[in-house]
Amino acid sequence: MPEGDTVWNTARVLQRALAGARLTGSDFRVPQLAATDLTGWTVRESASRGKHLLLRLAATDAAPWTLHSHLRMDGAWRAYAPGERWTARPAHLIRVVLRSPAAVAVGYHLHELALVPTADEESLVGHLGPDLLGPDWDADEAVHRLAADPDRTIGEALLDQRNLAGVGNLYKCEVLFLRGVSPWTPVGAVPDLPGTVALAQRLLAANRGRWTQSTTGVLRRGGTSYVYGRRAQPCRRCGTAIRKEELGERVTYWCPACQPGVELPPNGQDRLR
Known catalytic residue: 250? Predict the structure, then answer.
């Protein structure tokens, strides 16, 4: 699941593969960048901002530019050795190829792909809230942004990247379970909003640097989450069947016993437990 930690990891892969290298070729397979040629450009660094990936480039006779991409639900970058087969995804999903003497970076099913002057990066990511894995993480600002809309459900508010950047559906579900908060609780009724934000940051930071996302401390398959992806399975705490419902445009998983409060029943009308 490409959430903030996955994008952070991806940025590190590209940093190791390309940083400091002069590109020997590029191939863009999207209409808006089809004629772009980055041959001769040097990769300065690879960075992440929430769920956005920023590949910063420089040339000797031009201002620096940034190649921006968003992974959404299905995007990915892979780094290969020259001559190695590209096996991560089918070829028709390739959106960009960047070649250097030591590595080839291939971007699959990328979204919001854009090349902009580095000075204009804020036009793409300036709307984001504090980055949970960024060097400038500001928990107080994240809490302030969440609290600005007290009537919104906490489940929807955590997913809004304008509040805090990096939380996806997995971490939303897991954080709220661990805090014992129903996803349908209004932000203004969450007992300890700073504690919820702090836990979200700790969970993402704990998974930084590894590809298996675990909130339980268990890395084996089937044991990595408390509620996410576990509909109808017994809660690891109380044994109650985990439920799954839509919340906004996304699904949510929760334990109705461990997360009492405002809940969505089968008839679609909110009720209090």
Answer: yes
Q: Could you tell me the two tokens for 191?
A: 């007992």
Single out the catalytic residue among 22, 250, 256, 260.
250
Which residue is catalytic, options 49, 51, 95, 179? 51
Q: 51 an active-site residue?
A: yes
Q: Note if the pTM is more than 0.85.
A: yes
Distance in angstroms (rounded) separating the CA atoms of residues 167 and 153 = 15
Residues 67, 14 contacting (CB under 8 angstroms)? no
Per the DSSP assignment, residues forming a β-bridge with 77 are 107
Q: What is the DSSP string of 35-71?
A: T---TT-EEEEEEEETTEEEEEEEETTEEEEEEEEE-
Other C-beta atoms lying within 10 Å of the C-beta of residue 172 = 24
pLDDT digits (tens, 9 = 90+) for 167-220: 999 999 999 999 999 999 999 999 999 999 999 999 999 999 999 999 999 999
In the block, residue with structure tokens 């089918």: 90
- Is 2 tagged catalytic? yes
pLDDT tens digits, one per residue of 13-46: 999 999 999 999 999 999 999 999 999 999 999 9
Tokens encoding 69: 């991409």
Is 3 known to be catalytic?
yes
